[in-house]
Amino acid sequence: MKYDHYVSTDTSRTFRIHNDVKRPSRLRIIPPVLLTGLILVLLAVTVDQLVGVARGGQHNPMLDGKSRTDIKAEYDFVVNGIADRRRTLYAAWQDATGTQARRKVVATARTEVTRAILDEIVPYWIGTPWAFHGMTETPGSGEIACGYFVATVLRDAGVRLDRVSLAQQPSELMIRSLVAEENIYRYSDLSGRAFLERLHRLPSGVYILGLDKHVGLLVLSESAPVFIHSSYLRPYGVVREQAATSRALMRSRYRVLGNLTGDSSFLLKWLGGERIRTLQE
Fold first, then answer.
1. What is the secondary structure of 52-119 as a DSSP string?
2. Cis peptide leading into 139, omega within 30 of 0?
3. Higher pLDDT residue, 187 or 29?
4. Which position has the higher pLDDT, 17 or 229?
5. Which pTM does this prediction carry?
6. Of 53, 178, 216, 263, which shows the fewest CB atoms inside 10 Å?
7. Model confidence over 161-218: pLDDT tens digits?
8. Using H for helix, E for strand and C for coil, what is the string for 113-153?
9. Is the dihedral of CA 223, 227, 228, 234 positive or negative?
């Protein structure tokens, strides 16, 4: 028996779609009008999805005119640069004496993680096509699902984790694997507008945002909240969009947030290259 496993934020329920559809034992006659309508609907959905996949999310000028090999080499150079800076910062942490000196290093680590995610890793992924089973590791090539997008961005930003294991968990477990409970915020049955109002009460930073059947990164700052995710809706790819205009975010009835850059434990694990264990269902 095969199942497709949706990313869920509610650990008490995991969304599954049964793939073993029983076929009718004998042919049933479908009225012509109904059959025509059904064909038109299927054609519309198929064309819509094909166009979306062809577009692959937002256009990414960073990748224009570059071959897959060139993109991978350039991306690997960026990833290695992040790793080098992390090791240098960790050496400073080890040399620091006193609480105040170490707090200063952690504050720098927060800045470095934010920079690595938002300014160095994410820009390469914008426009990469979405697919339910997508798990590419090269930006702009192949497809990537929402959970794999988040896990890959974090790994390449220097977080030591099991990309596959983390990506396959419901987003509630993804967040709990990375962030301490005091930095997790849950909201149920709020309208999109009410949820956006609640965000004003939270500190600035980079968050993981889990929805009913989706996951992405939410950026809170002095500007309007921004949602970065591999969208299963148009344009079917990695996008960076205003939270207020994100259909996936606004439609969800359950939302869970984990403040990555506000969590000292997460930052220290990043700093020291400590492996983060994935919590299982």
1. HHHHTSS--GGGTT--HHHHHHHHHHHHHHHHHHHHHHHHHHHH--SHHHHHHHHHHHHHHHHHIIII
2. no
3. 187
4. 229
5. 0.81
6. 53
7. 999 999 999 999 999 999 999 999 999 999 999 999 999 999 999 999 999 999 999 9
8. HHHHHHHHHHHHHCCCECCCCCECCCCCCCCECHHHHHHHH
9. negative
